[in-house]
Amino acid sequence: MELDDQIWAAMEGGYRITYNPSQVLKDLKASSDSEKLEGLFEELWDNLHHQGDVGLASYLSVPQLVSICIEKQSFDYNYIGLCVLIENCRRKGNNPELPHDFAKSYFDSLSLFTDYLLLNFRKIEDYDASRLALALFAIASGQPSLGKALEIMDEAILEEVLDG
Fold first, then answer.
1. Burial class (CB in 10 A: 0-12, 13-18, 19+), 89
2. Helix (H, G, I), strand (E, B), or coil: what is residue 124?
3. Residue 136's closest CA among 74, 66, 60, 72?
4. Which pLDDT score is estimated for 158?
5. Rounded Cα gap, residues 129 and 160, in angstroms
6. Distance CA 16, CA 35 (A)
7. What is the pLDDT of residue 1?
8. Is residue 99 within 8 Å of 46, Cβ to Cβ?
9. Where are the domains of the chain?
10. CB atoms near residue 4 (< 10 Å)
11. Nearest to 132 by CA among 72, 74, 93
């Protein structure tokens, strides 16, 4: 779906209120300034997800995030993490179903993202990006519980597990 489509204005985000991420996604695509990117990602994290809740804006942002990430040849954990988080939330029973009209685009983008990250895994140097890529691989392999565990396995939790 194009970012200029009028449907973006009528979508709900993680707070279950109207949230239109299209301009933020356009800005994300156009920017290379790390400080600006940080602010854009912060807005997406804050509005596409809230305490396990996601909405249609969240689902339709996934193909956009994947496209932008691949186009920029990025391995930024924010792209991977947002996609993993939204997919894990989608699987929970309390979130809206992914509309049939958007399912192919959504799932095709996750498959494309998985392929991109798998082909480039050795280039990922950031711990969080590596961990989240592994989470996406697990989810794509039909192991959503392992994917969820990897999603939340930050360095502090890993150290605790390894020391225990």
1. buried
2. coil
3. 66
4. 85
5. 20
6. 28
7. 82
8. no
9. 6-163
10. 8
11. 74
At residue 61, φ and ψ (nearest 5 deg) are -75, -25
Task: Report the length, in residues, of the chain.
Answer: 164
Whole-number Å distance between alpha carbons of 153 and 164? 15
Instruction: Tell me the C-alpha to C-alpha distance, in Å, between residue 97 and each of 40, 71, 87, 113.
Output: 26, 28, 11, 21
Cβ atoms < 10 Å from Cβ of 40? 22
Contact present, 95 and 148 (Cβ < 8 Å): no
Both tokens assigned to 159 = 């150290």
Q: How many helices (H) and strands (E) does the chain have?
A: 8, 0
Cα angle 144-64-84, degrees, rounded to a multiple of 5: 20
Please tell me whether the overall predicted TM-score, pTM, comes out greater than 0.70 for this model. yes
Q: What angle do CA 96, 129, 111 make, to 5 degrees?
A: 50
Res 16: pLDDT: 94
Strand partners, 50: 53
Rounded distance, CA 71 to CA 65, Å? 10
* CB contact set of 98 (below 8 Å; sequence gap of 6+): 59, 90, 106
Q: What is the pLDDT of residues 8-62, one digit of tens each?
A: 999 999 999 999 999 999 999 999 999 999 999 999 999 999 999 999 999 999 9
